[in-house]
Amino acid sequence: MTQSQVLILQHVPWEKPGRIATALDEIGLNYQILNIADKKKPDLPAFDEVAGVVIMGGPMGATDYDKYPGLKAEAKLARAAIAVNKPVLGVCLGHQIIATALGAKLHKGEAPEIGFAPIKRVDKHDYFSMWDKQINVLHWHNDVVGLPEGAQLLARTTNTKVQAFRAGSALGLQFHLEVSSALLEEWLEESSMVKDLKAAGGSKSQLREDFAQYNPLLHPLADQVFTGFAARCNSYARALARRDEENRPKDPVIC
To answer: Which N-terminal residues, if any, form the signal peptide (predicted)?
Structure first.
């Protein structure tokens, strides 16, 4: 019997799962990280062996299928997972991939949102039970999406109406809770990220100062969100294991 695992879809080397992977590690749940963005026919693990799906961020557009054909496979996977109540988590680009896969529209925002700025919590969910009405989080995006039909809006900003949403078994986050201090330093070593930061009027030193200020509150909230997701994946993995055990051929009875 093949052990189930969480599938993490990463699009560029520096947009790592960070605290998401930490939460999976802490409960001993296996995961596989793949980059399929440029593959027309990606080699994915068997769907029945996947206990959860994580779709990370990246600089491409969520529907840029001509240049990145693998994004279409990611959207299809997200829809299939949600249809069977398999846990799905999307961050930034991943948030947009899930939303557009469910029928929401993608478009350019009024202006890039890069750096720390407040979001307003609109509604509560198990993932967001500790959240105050307003909190400063790390933003890094240009595109924005609408709310998928039937989805629950969780957070917004003035320029980005959908900062977080829940749709069935999926959670989309436009902002970056996954970033630890170590991962932030990797971002600040990546020239394309620094270029975006400077174009938005930010600086490395200011971003480091803001991270030091806001991280003490964000870290426990990130832990709550990602440990909640990991627990859901673990429950799904246990359900898969029970199903496999029930379907396993029984040894013959010898009289």
So the answer is: none
SS (H, E, C) 106-133: EEEEEEEEEEEEEEEECCCCHHHCCCCC
Residue 177: CB atoms within 10 A of its CB come to: 20
Please check the confidence at residue 254 and state whether its pLDDT lies above 70.
Answer: no
pTM of the predicted model, to two decimals?
A: 0.94
- Does the active-site annotation cover 92? yes
Query: Which residues, listed in sequence order, are joined to residue 88 by a DSSP beta bridge?
Result: 53, 170
Summarised one tens digit per residue, pLDDT across range 139-176 is: 999 999 999 999 999 999 999 999 999 999 999 999 99
* Residue pair 150/167 in contact by the 8 Å Cβ criterion: yes
Which among 6, 36, 2 has a CA at the least distance from the CA of 22? 6
Beta bridge partners of 167: 170
- Catalytic residue chosen out of the listed positions 74, 139, 178, 233: 178
What residue ranges define each of the domains in the chain, with the CATH number in brackets? 5-247 (3.40.50.880)
Give the model's pLDDT for residue 127. Answer: 75
Instruction: Please say if 11 is a catalytic residue.
Output: no
Which is catalytic among the residues 11, 95, 141, 176? 176
Catalytic residue among 11, 92, 95, 233: 92
Q: What single-letter DSSP state applies at residue 47? A: G
79-to-3, 23, 60, 103, 162 alpha-carbon distances in Å: 23, 24, 20, 10, 19
Is residue 214 within 8 A of residue 136, CB to CB? The reply is: yes
